[in-house]
Amino acid sequence: MTKRFLSYKGLLLLFGIYLVLLVGIKSEMINFYWEGIFKLALINIILVVSLNLATGLLGQLNLAHSAFMAIGAYTCVFITRNLFFPGFINFLFGLFLGGMAATIFAYLISAPAMKIPGNYLIIATIAANEIIKDLIINLNILGGSSGIHGINYYSNFSFVYLIMALIIIFIYVIKDSKYGRAIMCIPQNEMLAKSCGIDTFHSKLFVFSIAAFFAGVAGGLYAHEMTVIEPNMFDFSYSLELLAMVIIGGLGNIIGSIVSAFIFSVMPYVFNIGSELKVVIHVIMMIIVIIFMKKSLILDYKRFLVDAWNDMKKKVW
Amino acid sequence: MDILNKLIDGFEMASIYALISLALTLGANINGMINFIMGQLFVISIYMIAFLCDLKIPIIISVLIAIAVCVVINLLIKKYVYDLVKKHSQMMSLIVSIGASFVIQDIFVFIFRANPKKLFYTVNGIYKLGIIEINYTDLLCLLVFLFIMLASYLFVKYTRLGKIIRAVSEDSESTALMGIDNDKIICFVYGICAGLVTIAGSFFCITFSLVDPFSGNMIILRSLIGAIIGGLGIVSGSLSKSVIGALCGGFAVGLFEILIKNYAVAGASDIFLFCILAVYLFVNNKKFLRRGKN
User: Fold this and answer.
1) I want to staple A148 with a disulfide (CB 3.0 to 4.6 A). Which of A8, A143, A191, B129 is the partner?
2) Cβ distance B53 to B62 under 8 Å?
3) Of A299-308, B146-155, B206-215, which one has max mean pLDDT?
4) Alpha-carbon gap, residue A261 to A311, rounded angstroms
5) SS in 3 state form for A148-161?
6) Mean pLDDT across the stretch A162-179?
């Protein structure tokens, strides 16, 4: 699975899905409501894939991802409103600078955060998430608790799909490179990786910051898709939903996280469950997945579904 | 003085945070994972006490019934969720407990709707001691807090059951070899934690006049900060010090919140608390690695 996606088959698959969806949208078979839902699903895919990069390749769960998304979203909106370029170029600048702002923040908090044992790192990342959310609520320049309304609508379906495809390709490039394979050794045995000459500290910082960059870009796309952002949606429960999608897809398994992100973004709207039970379903699934997961399964993603199926069969029979 | 009166006004929330911090610390020390369900049990206990008092059942009996219900829910979650994920690392248990708390919250909202519920049980009355004025509820909360601090310290340090609890929290393999049923002791401590959370819920009932299902989210985060600053992962192995530390940490978080709300920016008490937690975790990171097992 490592080389195959970047070959022509993988790119053809990406392009093929794009053509199918584009034809559906242009010919009004997929109406505007479903187009918005697919765009939200694509943005969730970007977030989940970048979170998979940060957790699956590092072996540490972090719940600060929606804070990076919030920083990216607010920075992007600020730039598209105040910069002097014509419309769409403003948006590109906004996305890039939103990602950079999120990266700077992640770089600042990751250096001390990498030394905290994993159990308390989760609590520290919850704290970071809530700090960002409360700062946004309390600073009146950023719109306060009611958020920002009336953002221009810049992200159409093709653009969002293009950004998502570029990010997925980029993550595969990182993962399959020599650097990426070196980083994959870190969660398995950090001492051994260090003694083989891998600079674990800077690798962890790099991966964390790159993941935050993609989250910032996804935040910018989200802001210009929904045209309204408010700080209360960027709390740590959204981070927990993203982490649930990552765990269900498999830590370190990128295609699994794409599939699980798409399913759990689209499923509440397909079954008309409404917003009451939405969180319950994928968090319950996450708990079920963790219960049935084999113990040392951090990077053994390929056999996860087979093993889980066998486990369930054994427990039932 | 003005500041004393404001601090005394904050005793109710401070003792709520202290009791929930104590519940978190006891649960975390004995089981090895932080039990995030306490926030939702807090809210469920408030709803139960209010519901039973609305039916004119006396408050002592309604608190006892709420304790029973919360203990049952806590033990069910422990048996069917926490015990099954013990084979993984502590990180996974923590994520599962955070997830379980959101699941309980959403099921609660689904069944009972998210409308706020009115509570009619505040007691008005002031004692005057010189220049200090204390509410009845503040005095009650303070007295119960001091009683629980004394009682839990004496229980953990001097009784036989306290010694067993200390032993199980330090080294559960050796206690299993000595013939102690670890699971029963853990269930007993989880019952005590649920009881403490229910008492905190009763404080909330007599203090505030409105409750909604989402009140528990921030309260448990602040209690967690109080527990960690009181020495949750660090003071491993001496449960008696952890007990005092958790209670004082929770109480200090409550007082700090009142001070920041009155004398600094109003909405920023959370930011200060989380920054203090972040700085504390960053500075003390080496002390969190337990020696021995886990």
Assistant:
1) A143
2) yes
3) B146-155
4) 24
5) ECCCCCCCCHHHHH
6) 85
Residue B35's pLDDT is what? 92
In the block, tokens 């409404």 appear at A274
The helices-and-strands tally (H runs, E runs) of chain A is 13, 0
Tokens found for residue B172: 């559960």
Q: By CA distance, what is A244's nearest residue in B?
A: B99
Q: Which two tokens stand for residue A206?
A: 């790099």
Q: Are A45 and A261 in contact (CB under 8 A)?
A: yes
Quote the CA–CA distance of A56 and A50 in Å, as a whole number: 10
Which A residues, 51 through 80, put their C-beta within 8 Å of a C-beta on chain B? 60-61, 63
Inspect the interface and report whether the beta carbons of A61 and B99 lie closer than 8 Å: no
Residue A277 to residue B89, Cβ atoms within 8 A: no
* Interchain CB contact of A276 with B (< 8 Å): yes
Average pLDDT taken over every residue of chain B? 87
Find out whether B69 and B52 touch, Cβ atoms under 8 Å: no
Instruction: Look at A287 and B277 and tell me if their CB atoms are within 8 Å.
Output: no
Q: Chain B contact for A308, CB < 8 A?
A: no
Q: From chain B, which residues contact A within 8 Å (Cβ)? A: 34, 81, 84-85, 87-92, 94-96, 98-100, 102-103, 106-107, 109-110, 221, 224-225, 228, 233, 265, 267-268, 270-271, 274-275, 277-278, 281-282, 285-286, 288-289
- What would the mean pLDDT of A73-86 be, rounded to a whole number? 84
Q: Tell how many helices (H) and how many strands (E) occur in chain B.
A: 12, 4
Q: How confident is the prediction for chain A on average, in pLDDT? A: 80
Of A109, A286, A291, the CB nearest to B84: A291
Per residue in B11-35, pLDDT (tens digit) is 889 999 999 999 999 998 888 889 9
pLDDT of residue A301: 47
Q: Is B129 helix (H, G, I), strand (E, B) or coil?
A: strand
**Quick check: A290 and B95 CB within 8 A?**
yes
- Which chain B residue shows the shortest CA-CA distance from A243? B95
**Secondary structure (3-state) at A140:** helix
Q: Looking at CA atoms only, how far is residue A161 from chain B in angstroms?
A: 31
User: Encoding tokens for residue A178?
Assistant: 């020599």
How close is the nearest chain A Cα to the Cα of B88, in Å?
6
Tell me the CA distances in angstroms from A51 to A46, A121, A199, A278, B217, one per residue in order: 9, 15, 21, 20, 24
- Cβ pairs bridging A and B (under 8 Å): 119
Question: What would the DSSP string read from start to end of B1-15?
Answer: -HHHHHHHHTHHHHH
With CA atoms as reference, the chain B residue closest to A280 would be B103
- SS3 category, A247: helix
Please report the pLDDT score of residue B73 as a whole number.
Answer: 95
Which pLDDT does position A298 carry in this prediction? 44
CA atoms of B171 and B294, how far apart (whole Å):
10
Q: What is the pTM of this model?
A: 0.88
CA distance B95 to chain A (A): 8
Beta pairing, strands B210-211 & B117-118? antiparallel
Closest by Cα among A43, A68, A42, A40 to A54: A68
Asked if the model's pLDDT at residue A296 lies above 60, the reply is no
Candidate from A127-131, B148-152, B171-175 with smallest mean pLDDT: B171-175
